[in-house]
Design a protein that fits this description.
The complex is a heterodimer of chains A (113) and B (114).
Chain A lengths: L4 E3 L2 E4 L5 E6 L6 E8 L3 E9 L2 E5 L6 E5 L5 E5 L8 E8 L8 E2 L3 E5 L1
Chain B lengths: L3 E2 L4 E5 L4 E7 L6 E7 L6 E7 L4 E4 L2 E6 L4 E6 L8 E11 L2 E6 L3 E6 L1
Classes of the chains: A mainly beta (113), B mainly beta (114).
Chain lengths: 113, 114
Amino acid sequence: KAGVTQTPRYLIKTRGQQVTLSCSPISGHRSVSWYQQTPGQGLQFLFEYFSETQRNKGNFPGRFSGRQFSNSRSEMNVSTLELGDSALYLCASRGSVGNTEAFFGQGTRLTVV
Amino acid sequence: DQQVKQNSPSLSVQEGRISILNCDYTNSMFDYFLWYKKYPAEGPTFLISISSIKDKNEDGRFTVFLNKSAKHLSLHIVPSQPGDSAVYFCAASARTGGSYIPTFGRGTSLIVHP
C-alpha cells in the first residue's frame, strides 16, 4: 500500500509569489490535514479536509488556503509569499476524521527568498 | 500559548540505557495522546499512543505513561539503540467538530551514543 505522497519535495520561490503544494493520501483515506514545521516551532496545524470540505482550520492568515478533490487528493496554496513562510509543509492522511492516528508524507521544503 | 510542551529540546543517552522523554499539556479536554518519531528529511511516523482512560501503554521497547492529574506524559525507551536517534514529537488531541486534530509539541531531539 503506497504511503502519503507529497510533491514537489523541494521548492524555492521569491517573496510575493504564490505556490501550490500537492498531497495524495493513502488509498482509501478520506481525511487530509496540513501542517507547517519551522525550526523550534514544532508542527502547527493549518487545516483539515474531509470529503472535499474543510473541517477544521488553524490560526494562519487567509493567504494560506487549500482544497480537496473527489479522489481525496489535496492541494495547499500560499499567496503573496513572505520570507517567514519558509518551512517544511507536511501532509497527513487518516482513514476518517474520527481516526486518531495520522500518517505523514515526507513533506515539501519551501524556501522563500 | 503552547498547549503541548516538550521542555527538553535535546536528550543524550548511552546505548543500552533508558531514554525518558517528557511532555506536559494544559488543555484538560485532551483525551488521546500520541508520540511520533521523525528522522531528517522524512515525515513523522507514528510510534505509540495512549487514551486518557489508561495510564500506561507498552509496545516492545516503548512505553508511554500518562498522569492525568499532573497533565504529564512520558515516553520510555528501553534499551535505547543508536537507531532511535531522531526527533520525538508528543501530540495531544481532543474531538473538535467530530475530528481528532492533534496538537504537537516542539519536539525533543534524542541522540543515542554507541
